[in-house]
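User: We ran a pulldown and think these components assemble together. Before we commit to crystallization trials, I'd like a predicted model of the whole complex to look at. Sequences follow.
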Amino acid sequence: MSAKPPTPPAEIRALTEARLTFGRRGSAVDTAGALAFALDHARARAAVEAELDLPTLAAALDRMGLAHRVVTSAAGDRSGFIRRPDLGRRLREDGAATLAGLGPVDVALVLGDGLSATAVALNGAAFVADLAARLDRMCLRLSPVILARQARVALGDKIALALQATTVVMALGERPGLSAADSLGVYITHLPRPDTADSGRNCISNIREAGLPVTEAAGQAAQLIAAMRASGQSGVALSRALASGALPPARP
Amino acid sequence: MPYRIDLNATRYSFPSLKVLLARASPERSGDALAGLAADGPLRRIAAQHVLADVPLSDFLSDVMEVDGDGVTALIAGQHDRTAFAPVAALTVGGFRDWLLDPATTGADIAGLAWGLTPEMVAAVSKIMRAQDLIAVAAKVEVVTRFRSTLGLKGRLSTRNQPNHPTDDSQGIALSALDGLLMGAGDAVIGVNPATDSLPDYIRICEVLDAIRSQLAIPTQTCCLGHVTTALAAMEAGAPVDLVFQSVAGSDKANAGFGVTLATLDEAAEAVAALGRAPKGANLMYFETGQGAALSADAHHGMDQQTMEARAYAVARRYRPLLVNTVVGFIGPEYLADGKQITRAGLEDHFCGKLLGLPMGVDVCYTNHAWADQDDLDILLTALAAAGVNFVITVPGGDDIMLNYQSLSFHDASYIRRTLGKPPAPEFAEWIAANGIGTPGVTLPTLDAALGQLRLPAA
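Assistant: Here's a predicted model for the assembly, 710 residues in total across the polymer chains.
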């Protein structure tokens, strides 16, 4: 059993999360350090490999009184999803039937696995419920929560088009880092098209217990949606307009 | 001209050299994503058989077949017929045999550099095994200089990469010091900025310059922001040692990076005019990576490894101090797993060296690739055997800004001890003078070392 690595001084920990060396220099990483790294990587890999836990998500949404549907991208499974991002951006053929008759709506709410179903399991349902309540108060018509398997960000555009939604919120797991495997990212797009460029979206990232709290993220998302619907634009154009003060700050 | 072969009573045809190169590429996810890969192992090997018989001179025509591409024009303009003469009559297969012939020296190969085109070196790499890529690259020495001399035979340099998620000056300094206390940073101390604002770029340059000058380290520093930001920072008088830019193998891909050859020309001139380096020093730093062109939809139907080699034509125009492929960083949709990353790392190093570049590698992976620390160890060991100029190192192997795993400072110590690879001679003297790595010498703690630095105000 190796000794515990020396604890970094608190003032250094406040400055950086980097894996600095505080003990002896000049040898290999000690056993405790090597195994700690391996555990962090295993956590990240587990998050990437995880599938959406549909029964648990459905039960959580039922409790919150939110309707839901399930769609799958053309990627089919995790391995195909990782290797073929193009397929993760398209709906599988049966998607149109699943979504038929649910629109038109103002805002499509989508919860996708992305690169970390772990993030969705921890905070996905809470985020969409919080956001849905805020959008309800803004008198917007919402879609059921669409649970999207093997989903990349742009799958949200295809879902929105099928729902005739003017704004789409795609919340999904971000690529796990070594220090955090549970970050939820939210991409919001106004007037989505089949070929929306990334510059047409606004993003809120790092939503997790040790990062941006769910309530704060939902508040930011609601403000962005209000600004988008008031100005008719999203993405870089919206950010620029907000930064220049051309738009009044929205108060949902 | 169609390329074809009959193997086991099956005819395999390839309509163009571009298609032949793609089908002959060892398997990787990016070529499958682009719809360019061979549809199975037999067609792949059939393509390699055909490719081996193609004369090198065939590659002097426009292989990419895109009218008006500036990189294609650059490649044609760079070609030196006199340098090409020793191998001008060879086929791709004959070229492989020539490279591997013990009578062929490193100087012979280095002398070819401006006679070879990216497509030629990509072609020969496709019919070479890992040991071939290692054996040939190990013969070639590409030496560059600024405050340290890099690429000397038997040595291995490191980039110390002290990235920080908010570009915090003290956070950057702590990681840089951690590496320096382990002897990392003779190639460069280089930060990828989290933002690309001019004030942050200038501040990062000043922080790194303060560390280098106050500790009298014989190395160079770099903020890896966009080339246009570097131009503005130089204009503002920032201490810029090296100008950095990511580059790729077509005009369209470079446009995706927001860069043109004209901008790079301007930056190369501006950094030379600063006069911070001895005369004749190398002043540019480039990063590349297989899949960069495809991810910008700018690959023009060409396989990702050949596109990568074309990026080296852009890099070598500027006699850079450093070039590295970010091999495992671009993602598993381009290089799926440890096997593909390893192969690509060796290919990129080989192709860069043959084209005369001071080639380094960011030995790395992202968490959604099928790769782990073992894969990094194997690639590092193979690259050290191949004589790689430098590798990238970060604290504990964890880049907390870019969220991927690269080599750690410890990994560099491992390869130095195991294969006997000292750093650049000037830097080796500096670490010896400071007792770094000397048994019995007590080094300062990180907080003490940070306390002694005078960093510019945030």
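The mean pLDDT of chain A is 92. That may be worth checking against your pulldown data before setting up trials.

User: Thanks, that helps.
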